[in-house]
Amino acid sequence: MDYIKEINRLRKAKNAVILAHYYQTGDIQDIADCVGDSLALAQWAAETEADIIVLCGVHFMGETAKILCPDKKVLIPDAAAGCSLADSCPADEFAAFVRQHPGHTVISYVNTTAAVKAVTDIVVTSTNARRIVESLPKNEKIIFGPDRNLGDYINSMTGRSMVLWNGACHVHEQFSLERILALKKQYPDAEIIAHPECKQPVLQVAQFVGSTSALLNYTVRTPKNVFIVATESGVIHEMQKQSPSKTFIPAPPNDSTCACNECSFMRLNTMEKLYRCLHDEQPEIIVEESVRQKAVRPVLRMLELSQTSGMNRK
User: Fold this and answer.
1) For residues 13 and 153, what is the distance between their CA atoms, to the nearest angstrom?
2) Around Cβ 161, how many Cβ atoms within 10 Å?
3) Chain mean position to CA 232
């Protein structure tokens, strides 16, 4: 089957929009109407006039779209496409953690379930987290969850003492500092660029730290030509498209058998599943309305406090 032809036919017939995260495979990124990071996808979902949103990413991204667009049908190609970071923060345990710290503003990373967002004051992404934290009074007591590495990075950059939930992303936790430094010796002119979800030792050796879209934008604007990229390797597809003359080397994980670090959940989505999703209009993302009403407030606040994120609209 010509999946490209059939997907294009179905999305036109059904007034559907396809949104893809930078961590998707290259073929899915290429067919998407919008490719971006979590903030960009949320912004695009909030603006679209499509009847159906197909979110090629992981489950929490589909939930965020549904929170913002309750009147639209939101689909995801594979219902099993979860997120280790979201899984590290069960809603009931996080709610209990919040109760243990009364008087704190609760900031939750977008990589969380709708139920966690429902007990949150402000939702952030890696693109806007530092800016939003800095917009609050310096003496404000803050809970930040669930990514301890991102929270620790923001604390170090802002001088804050946010209370951190002990969660992490399995992709960014697994980067090997030793193997990254070995690559740096092999490519001495390369710049190490890293996502703030990485552990502190990796961030300390990086020449640039930023969100997925920030890393992409940096590789476009800097005169440097070689990069060791310490985030999920799917973003290299767009980096290479925007800077075809530059060299991008995926940072390796601790597993010595693998040369790059991929999110197993993100890679569950395929072109065949995207076609089936559009054809059958399943799996559909459902968010209980009582949860959605609580979760939409912090998500909207995130959008209000954010400038337009970098995205590739087609």
Assistant:
1) 46
2) 9
3) 10
